[in-house]
Specification:
With 126 residues, this protein is mainly β. The protein has a single domain, classed as predicted glycosyltransferase like domains (Thrombin, subunit H, Beta Barrel), CATH 2.40.10.220. It has one helix and seven strands, in the order βββββββα. The chain has a six-stranded antiparallel beta barrel with strand order 2-3-4-7-6-5. The longest helix has 15 residues.
């Protein structure tokens, strides 16, 4: 007796904000938040920023990140722009060396800078 064809997996996107691909070469650095600070508990690293939304981002990093762990982030989109800090972001998912982070604390000025960047990415220079 033949088995029915399994239905293809459906991916349900629960994001509140659409993510946009960032320009090639956009980088980030991170530092794990440890409260209270414990000696020897710092985890710092860097990697590539893949996409960005007002509420989160997808990154590539060779250093493994842990789901549920919080990190400080600093984005360097280009050398012409000052870095954009995110006070706290939490790892929501992982897939090999790819990670999805949700921003949980960001200064309103820096959030505005991310909004401006996203508007600029949507409207490429003519």
């Amino acid at each position: 007796m033949s088995q029915p064809n399994p239905q293809p997996k459906r991916i349900i996107d629960l994001r509140k904000h659409p993510r946009l691909l960032v320009p090639s070469g956009a980088l980030f650095s991170f530092k794990r938040l440890v409260v209270p600070a414990q000696l020897g508990e710092d985890v710092e690293g860097e990697g590539a920023l893949v996409d960005l939304s007002i509420g989160g981002c997808r990154i590539l990093s060779e250093l493994p990140l842990t789901i549920g762990q919080e990190y400080n982030l600093i984005f360097q989109i280009s050398m012409e722009r000052p870095p954009i800090p995110v006070d706290a972001a939490v790892v929501r998912w992982t897939d090999d060396a790819t990670y999805g982070l949700k921003f949980i604390s960001i200064d309103p000025h820096d959030e505005s800078r991310i909004r401006d960047l996203l508007l600029e990415i949507r409207r490429p220079a003519a």
